[in-house]
Design goal:
This protein is of the alpha/beta class. It has ten helices and six strands.
Length: about 230
């Protein structure tokens, strides 16, 4: 056990909860249930790829404070369908509601997540820090069995600030009742998780399963969650 650290902070999406797999399963269900194949010639893979491209762009803008949650919810599927050549579709809002209802109930986790959390749970108190929508994050954690591992779940809505702003990390440190030097942040996003934690003096583990490395500096970098057992 690394006794330097007394509390672990984890990001949720793409770090523990496998957003890519869960989203793809949900989108395949929606594609078939709403018979989207009748609208145009795009297939389910094109539907999924277009979703991820547009969703990534929207969340990037959200992290920068340029758009809000309602904008994502209200325009995401309209933009996706428009990109795929469907300019008029009366049920795009329904698709958005179905996605938000179904996707958080998927339970795929990143490889070795539960094994590593079992190892860490008896050694450290742990907190989730997430920019995700509060109501959906709670469902994700309950549906995937993650909720039992964490003492706190801190959302940007609760804290009043989005990662990477220092105030959400200050908020987390205060609620964990530790100093920044006693914390460690584990996340997949080099900007929101790694740079954000560094601004308040929290050590960071950049979880980089695709080996992007992107030139960002972090206290540690891992490609597998199993490597947490070596560090901690």
């Amino acid at each position: 056990m690394n006794r330097q650290y007394k509390h672990l902070f984890f990001d949720l999406d793409h770090t523990l909860w496998d957003h890519q797999s869960n989203a793809n399963e949900t989108l395949a269900d929606i594609y078939n249930d709403f018979q989207l194949f009748q609208l145009s010639e795009f297939n389910v893979s094109e539907f999924q790829d277009t979703f991820h491209k547009i969703n990534h762009g929207l969340w990037h803008k959200y992290h920068l404070g340029l758009i809000d949650q309602d904008y994502i919810r209200n325009t995401r599927f309209k933009m996706i369908l428009s990109t795929l050549g469907i300019e008029i579709y009366d049920s795009d809002m329904e698709l958005g509601k179905e996605y938000l209802s179904r996707c958080p109930r998927k339970s795929n986790l990143m490889p070795h997540a539960l094994e590593v959390l079992d190892y860490l749970k008896v050694r450290y108190p742990m907190t989730i820090i997430t920019n995700g929508f509060a109501e959906t994050q709670e469902i994700k954690m309950a549906s995937s069995g993650l909720i039992e591992y964490f003492d706190l779940v801190i959302t940007s809505e609760q804290a009043g600030w989005l990662k990477p702003h220092h105030k959400i990390f200050d908020f987390a440190v205060q609620h964990a009742k530790v100093s920044p030097a006693e914390c460690l942040m584990i996340g997949d996003n080099p900007s929101t998780d790694i740079e954000g934690a560094r601004t308040v003096g929290i050590d960071q583990i950049y979880y980089d399963p695709e080996d992007r490395n992107e030139g960002h500096q972090s206290t540690y970098r891992i490609r597998s969650l199993l490597q947490l057992k070596e560090i901690l």
